[in-house]
Amino acid sequence: MTTKIRAALVVVALAALLHTAVVVAQTTHVVGDSLGWLVPPGGPIAYATWADTQTFVVGDILVFNFTTGEQDVARVSKEGFDSCNSTNPISLKTTGPANFTLDTVGDYYFIGTMDRHCPLGQKLAIKVIDSSAGPSPPPSPRSPVTYTVGDILGWVVPPLGEVAYSTWAYNKIFIVGDSLVFNFINGTQDVAVVTKEAYDSCNTSSTITVYATSPTTITLTTTGMHYFSSTYELHCGLGQKLAINVIAKSTTPSPSGAATPPSSSVGASPSAGGPTAPPPSSSAPSRIVAGAIALLSIAVAFLH
């Protein structure tokens, strides 16, 4: 075999290896995870919280899962993001799922352009870093936190409507293991864990669990959206309702022999029927890497 052919084999092997390295470095982020891309019940904090758990690098892909005809997604400028102005979007996609490749470093802004969707929280801002810089160090783990719902307001029919509890939840990060404490007067209030549908419609006849004794402590045991309301007549409709997004546990997992949570601990499952996230990436890239390395070894051997 001539030297030229041997050299060509080396070039081909190196090209395959370099291409594979790019593929392996690429990460696909499903925006909102199981929540998908919609008007979030808790306002913009839902997507801000999700973004805080991710590291975005050049070459990564964002996947927006939504129902075509009911939602859309536009990439806009910072000004368009801040003002929810979609008049001159950088890019607009109306068919779900929609993919965006992050091809440059810097800030990216996305909004829903349909009526009032953006002002109600369907907006996402992320920062993309250079892949050569490597991922940012993960945030320091924290222990579970106990939150008193509404703080000094407690769990009541709020004077200003549901904005009171949306405001309370804003900028809070809830992780698996955190606890919510609902303070109310026994016999005048209660707290129910409900589905998204029951939350939206204030259907008090459809509940997952109801707690009637104060204070009620509920431990968050699953990720995703969690919904709470009161079953007392008109209380939910007048704003006694809370929606939060819970992300993965950031502390070191407990040993397998650790005690189970108390009986009052619940994990409100995300609502069914939402957009389905794409299946996880296969292990093919790692196999391709191994194959490319083997090919390179063979090619080098031919040169000797």
Q: CATH H-level name of the domain at 31-138... which superfamily? A: Cupredoxins -  blue copper proteins
Integer average pLDDT: 78
The ordered string of helix (H) and strand (E) elements is HEHEEEHEEEEEHEEEHEEEEH
Can you count the beta strands?
A: 16
GO cellular component, one term: plasma membrane
GO molecular function, one term: electron transfer activity
Keywords: Disulfide bond, Glycoprotein, Signal
Pfam family, one: Cu_bind_like
Give a brief rundown of this model.
The protein is α/β, with parallel strands linked by helices and 304 residues long. It contains six helices and 16 strands. The strands form four sheets. A five-stranded mixed beta sheet has the order 2-8-7-4-5.
Question: How would you describe this protein?
Answer:
One of its GO terms (cellular component) is plasma membrane. GO terms for molecular function: electron transfer activity. Keywords: Disulfide bond, Glycoprotein, Signal. This is Early nodulin-like protein 1. The chain is of the alpha/beta class and 304 residues long. Among the domains are: 108 residues, Sandwich (Immunoglobulin-like), CATH 2.60.40.420; 102 residues, Immunoglobulin-like (Sandwich), CATH 2.60.40.420. 23% of the residues lie in helices and 22% in strands. It has six helices and 16 strands. It has a five-stranded mixed beta sheet.
